[in-house]
Design a protein that fits this description.
The protein contains six helices and six strands. The strands form two sheets. The protein has a four-stranded parallel sheet with strand order 4-1-5-6, with helices on both faces. Strands 2-3 form a two-stranded antiparallel ribbon. The model has no long low-confidence stretch (mean pLDDT about 95).
């Protein structure tokens, strides 16, 4: 592991604004793709909305961050999401369990993200993080952390990339 902070990247919400899939038109800049991750081998596949420009935005942050998938897609992100965005294969958080409840309002991913970071500074973009997660991270993670909640109807915006760049500066 390097010395740069981690940028932990969720797909559904930040990169795939899944709540926009029901709209008659794709949001500006987004392409609708059909993917076949595990569990979606039959039928038309899983629809996702991806904005190819986001790949360049993430690569521009790679001089400040180590990019890591923090998604339930796990390594399949490198097959279905990374290539359309122009991203190289990235390491990923290998969740020991997907889903569940912590019972205290903390998102199930949060303890695993903190364990993965192992004390390193990190920024995390996800649609399901909130104040309970920020408090949990502050109490259990010794390094700096930025948890940025992304609207799953909109996805990543310019202000998100600017905030990530500023935080790592």
């Amino acid at each position: 592991m390097g010395t740069k902070p981690l940028l932990l990247i969720d797909i559904d919400g930040p990169l795939n604004p899944y709540l926009a899939l029901s709209r008659p038109r794709n949001p500006e800049g987004y392409r609708r793709l059909r993917t076949r991750p595990t569990g979606w081998e039959m039928g038309q596949g899983l629809p996702v909305l991806l904005n190819p420009a986001h790949g360049g935005e993430l690569l521009a942050l790679a001089d400040r961050y180590e990019l890591v998938w923090a998604t339930t897609w796990k390594d399949e992100a490198n097959q279905w999401v990374g290539p359309p965005l122009g991203l190289p294969p990235l390491p990923f958080v290998d969740w020991p369990v997907v889903g569940g409840s912590t019972g205290d309002g903390v998102f199930w991913k949060t303890p695993h993200v903190v364990a993965y970071a192992a004390g390193r500074p990190f920024a995390w973009i996800d649609d399901e993080v909130g104040e309970p997660d920020r408090a949990w991270v502050a109490a259990h993670h010794p390094g700096p952390a930025l948890l940025r909640q992304i609207d799953p109807a909109i996805g990543l915006e310019r202000r998100d990339f600017d905030a990530l760049a500023a935080w790592a500066a």
